[in-house]
Amino acid sequence: MTWxxxxxxxxxxxxxxxxxWLPTDIWRYLGVFVGGKxxxxxxxxxxxxxxxxxxxxGVIAQxxxxxxGSLAESSVFLRIGAAAAGFLAYLRLGRHVIVSVIAAEIVLxxxxxxxx
Length: 116
Prior knowledge:
- It contains four helices and no strands.
- With 116 residues, the chain is mostly helical.
- The longest helix has 24 residues, at 11-34.
- The two termini are 29 Å apart.
- InterPro entries: Brnchd-chn_aa_trnsp_AzlD.
- The chain crosses the membrane at residues 12-34, 46-65, 71-90, 97-114.
């Protein structure tokens, strides 16, 4: 991958994959490493979990409702459908974030190629 590949059609999808999975899992692993001694029902951990969930929900909502770049060329129904497919994959296929992101991308890319 070079700097010039940023204009290729596949680059936004790789970015979504990395931005959707990597930051989430890094914090999860760091939380396991550092937070092993913190009680799960402590007020601090509940507050951190609430803020993290709200941030992820906000980013997803912004991507669906106010997209930019290649994502803006898709319909809102396709973006909502891709998010729903990702969520269902998360629930049905072992609650792995990477699986849900890949499932949502497959639906999104398929919809873009079929012109939905």
